[in-house]
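Moderator note: this is an archived Q&A kept for reference. The question asked for a predicted structure of one protein chain; the sequence and the answer are reproduced below.
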Amino acid sequence: MRTLSNNRALDKLAELVEDKENELDHMNLQREALVENYVKGQKLALTLWVNYRKRQLHQGLIHWFDTVRTIKNAESLDRLRKNMN
């Protein structure tokens, strides 16, 4: 009788260990997915920042070119006015 109860207790413990191992495997999979998603998010944020910086640089150059063009046009108009006088 004692052997039978010990076997039952061992079976219950074996089932408990198996359940805990399954839970641990599941948690490891979740951790891996979380880390993978975190890395993807960091890459996305970095790409977004790089694109923002490129856009700002491009807009700054366009503004600078417009300013240079306006100054050149003003200088040309001044030269034309001087030649007309």
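Archived answer notes: The helical segments are 2-84.
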